[in-house]
């Protein structure tokens, strides 16, 4: 049995392409950051897992999945090989999705993004604070 179940956050917007067949098929590629259970130096470690969603799942991903969103994926592990331009054999592990879904509500995702955006706004007006306690000229 080859079955993978993941819950994590998208590291960036999914890349979606369509096949060049008579009836184009959506192929969405994206990376999921999945937290590990143990912590190193107080920080949670994550695995970054490549996901491929094809067909209707690919269309769903294209329409609804956004960077930072927590999603759940059910699929199968696929390992493939290719030869790079130097003739070296490379191995790629990826999960081919069979089911994709949201793992958080739209309102909690939007609330988290709004809080993140408001905390990143700075009061940078281009001026540098000057210590006025020193009576000597600055030159």
% residues in beta strands: over 45%
Q: Spans of 5+ residues with little confidence (pLDDT < 50)?
A: none
Counted beta strands: 6
Could you say which overall geometry the principal axes of the C-alpha atoms support? globular
Sheet with most strands: strand arrangement: 1-3-4-6-5
Helix count equals: 2
Subunit structure: Homotetramer.
GO molecular function, one term: single-stranded DNA binding
Region (Disordered): 101-139
Protein name: Single-stranded DNA-binding protein
Characterise the protein shown here.
The structure is a single chain. The protein has 139 residues and is an alpha+beta fold. The protein is 17% helix and 47% strand. The protein has two helices and six strands. Strands 1-3-4-6-5 form a five-stranded mixed barrel. A hairpin with a 5-residue loop joins strand 5 and strand 6. The longest helix has 15 residues. The chain is globular, with a radius of gyration of 22 Å. The termini are far apart. The mean pLDDT is 85.
How is this structure best summarized?
By secondary structure, this protein is of the alpha+beta class.
List the helices and strands and how they pair.
Elements: E1 4-10, E2 15-18, E3 26-40, E4 43-54, H1 56-64, E5 70-83, E6 89-102, H2 106-120
Parallel strand pairs: 4-6
Antiparallel strand pairs: 1-3, 1-5, 2-3, 3-4, 5-6
Give the key terms.
5-stranded mixed β-barrel; alpha+beta; globular
């Amino acid at each position: 049995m080859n079955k993978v179940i993941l819950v994590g956050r998208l590291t960036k917007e999914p890349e979606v392409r369509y096949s060049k067949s008579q009836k184009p098929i959506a192929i969405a590629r994206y990376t999921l950051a999945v937290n590990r259970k143990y912590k190193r130096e107080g920080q949670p470690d994550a695995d970054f897992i490549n996901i491929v969603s094809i067909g209707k799942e690919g269309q769903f991903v294209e329409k609804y999945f956004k960077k930072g969103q927590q999603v759940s994926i059910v699929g199968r592990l696929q390992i493939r090989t290719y030869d790079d331009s130097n003739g070296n054999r490379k191995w790629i592990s990826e999960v081919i999705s069979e089911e994709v879904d949201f793992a958080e509500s739209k309102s909690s995702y939007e609330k988290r993004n709004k809080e993140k955006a408001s905390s990143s706004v700075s009061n940078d007006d281009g001026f540098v604070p000057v210590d006025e306690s020193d009576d000597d000229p600055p030159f």
